[in-house]
Design goal:
With 424 residues, the chain is an alpha+beta fold. 66% of the residues lie in helices and 10% in strands. The chain has helices spanning 3-44, 48-74, 83-109, 113-156, 171-226, 233-264, 277-294, 314-331, 376-379, 390-400; strands at residues 273-275, 298-303, 310-312, 337-345, 348-355, 404-409, 415-422. α3 (83-109) runs antiparallel to α4 (113-156).
Length: 424
C-alpha cells in the first residue's frame, strides 16, 4: 500500500469516527426527549392538546442544544489544549443548557420573579458543584495521561528503560500497562539488535580471517608452481595436496554458512525415516578414524543394547555427529580419547560425545550454541579454526527433530556435548 493510499484511508477513518461520534449526542437527545414524554404521560396523563406544546418545546430546546454543541465543536472545542479544559467546558455547557431549559420551565410554571430567582440560584449552584466534582474526579485521569505523554517522549528520545506508573484498573491504567509492555519489548529488541550487530561484526572479522589464510596459502603455492620455482615431483605433489585441502576447507566454510542461513530462515527440511542410530554412530566414527589414528587418539563407541531403530533424518543427525566428533578431535590432545555413547531413556534416546581435552571455558558454556560465537580458546587452537558455526548448526538440526542439546565440562577433565531426541 502506497503512502498516499494510507493517508486517504486514515482520512476516511477519521471522518467516519467524527460521524459516529456525533451520533452519540443526537441519539442521546432523542432518548432524553422520549423519556421526558413517557414520564409526563405516566404521572400527568395529559391530553394530546396538552402533550403537543410540551413535545414541541422539548424538541426545540433539544435540537438547539445539538446545534450549539456542533457550532462550538467547529469553533475549536475539539482542539482543546487539555482534557481538563475540555471536560470543564463541556460541563459548563451542560450547566448553561440546564439553566436555560430549567429557567424557561420555571418561567412557565412560576409567575413570581422571586421564585424564578431562587430556582435560578439553585440551578447555578448545582451546576457549579457538579462541575467541581467532575473536574476533581477527572484530574487523576489527566495526571495519568500527562505521565504517559512524558514517558512516551522519553522512549521516543531513546530512553527505552522509561516506564509509566498509572494506578487503577480503568482504560487509562490498561493503556499504561500496554505501553509499559511495549516499552519492555522495545528495550529487549534493542538489546537483541545490539547483540546481533556485534555478532555480525564478529562474523565479518572471523570469516575474513578464515578466508584470507587459506587463500593466501593457495595463491602462494599456485604462483610457485606457475613460475616453476618448485620442480621436485614430491614437493609438487605436496603442494597440490595442500591446495586441495585448503579448497575443501573453504567449501566446508561456505556450506556451513549456507546451511546456517537455511536454519535461520526455517528452510531446513527434516525427512525422518526409521534408522539404526547405532549403525549411524559407527559409520561416523569410522569416517574420521584415520584422522584420529594420525594423532593416536582413541575413538570409542558405546551403544546401548536396547537402542532400537529410531525415526530421524540420517543426513541431519549424521551431520550433527560429524560436527560434534570433529569438534572433539580439534580439542583433544594427541594420545587422547573420544567416547561416543548412545542409550535409550524412556521414550527418548540420548547421545553424548565426550573428549579428554581441556574442556570449555566457563565463560563460553552459556553461549556455545549461539550463531557465529567462538570462545577465545577455540580461536587460538592450532588444529584449525572455524566461523563458530558447527555447534549452532548442530543445535538447529537437533531442535528441528524436536530434541535438545547441551554442553558441560566433565569433572575428571574434558568436555561433553549431549543431545536428546524423541525415539519416534
Amino acid at each position: 500500500m502506497s503512502a498516499s493510499t494510507t493517508e486517504q484511508a486514515e482520512r476516511r477513518n477519521s471522518a467516519d469516527m467524527r460521524t459516529n461520534a456525533w451520533l452519540i449526542p443526537i441519539i442521546g437527545v432523542g432518548v432524553a426527549l422520549l423519556v421526558a414524554l413517557l414520564i409526563d404521560l405516566l404521572f400527568f396523563q395529559p391530553t394530546i392538546d396538552q402533550l403537543t406544546p410540551m413535545f414541541l418545546q422539548l424538541g426545540f430546546y433539544a435540537w438547539l442544544s445539538v446545534i450549539i454543541g456542533f457550532i462550538l465543536y467547529r469553533l475549536g472545542w475539539a482542539y482543546s489544549p487539555s482534557l481538563t479544559f475540555a471536560v470543564s467546558f463541556t460541563l459548563i455547557l451542560v450547566g448553561v443548557l440546564t439553566l436555560v431549559n430549567g429557567g424557561v420551565a420555571a418561567w412557565l410554571m412560576f409567575a413570581d420573579p422571586t421564585s424564578l430567582t431562587v430556582v435560578g440560584i439553585l440551578l447555578v449552584f448545582s451546576t457549579m458543584i457538579g462541575t467541581a466534582f467532575a473536574v476533581y474526579g477527572f484530574s487523576r485521569t489527566t495526571r495519568s495521561l500527562r505521565e504517559l505523554a512524558t514517558v512516551a517522549q522519553q522512549v521516543a528520545d531513546g530512553d527505552l528503560s522509561a516506564r509509566a506508573h498509572v494506578p487503577g484498573r480503568d482504560e487509562v491504567a490498561q493503556l499504561g500497562k500496554a505501553f509499559n509492555e511495549m516499552a519492555a519489548k522495545l528495550e529487549q529488541a534493542e538489546v537483541e539488535r545490539q547483540e546481533l550487530e556485534q555478532l555480525r561484526n564478529d562474523l565479518i572479522a572471523w570469516v575474513s580471517h578464515d578466508l584470507r589464510t587459506p587463500l593466501t596459502s593457495i595463491r602462494a603455492m599456485v604462483e610457485a608452481l606457475a613460475d616453476g620455482i618448485v620442480t621436485d615431483d614430491a614437493m609438487i605433489h605436496r603442494y597440490y595436496q595442500t591446495i586441495r585441502a585448503d579448497v575443501l576447507g573453504l567449501t566446508a566454510l561456505i556450506n556451513d554458512q549456507f546451511e546456517l542461513a537455511q536454519l535461520g530462515a526455517r528452510g531446513i527440511k527434516i525427512e525422518k525415516v526409521l534408522v539404526s542410530l547405532g549403525d549411524l554412530i559407527s559409520d561416523t566414527i569410522e569416517s574420521v578414524r584415520v584422522l584420529a589414528e594420525q594423532r593416536d587418539i582413541e575413538l570409542v563407541g558405546e551403544i546401548g543394547d536396547d537402542l532400537d531403530a529410531v525415526m530421524i533424518s540420517p543426513q541431519g543427525i549424521g551431520r550433527v555427529l560429524t560436527n560434534l566428533i570433529g569438534n572433539a578431535l580439534r580439542y583433544t590432545p594427541d594420545s587422547g580419547t573420544i567416547v561416543v555413547s548412545a542409550q535409550r531413556i524412556g521414550d527418548e534416546v540420548a547421545v553424548a560425545v565426550t573428549d579428554s581435552g581441556p574442556g570449555f571455558a566457563e565463560a563460553d558454556l552459556p553461549r556455545l550454541f549461539e550463531k557465529f560465537y567462538r570462545g577465545e580458546e577455540a580461536r587460538t587452537r592450532a588444529q584449525g579454526s572455524g566461523a563458530g558455526l558447527g555447534l549452532a548448526i548442530a543445535k538447529g538440526i537437533v531442535e528441528a527433530h524436536g530434541g535438545e542439546i547441551s554442553a558441560e565440562n566433565v569433572p575428571d577433565g574434558g568436555a561433553c556435548v549431549r543431545f536428546v531426541l524423541p525415539a519416534s
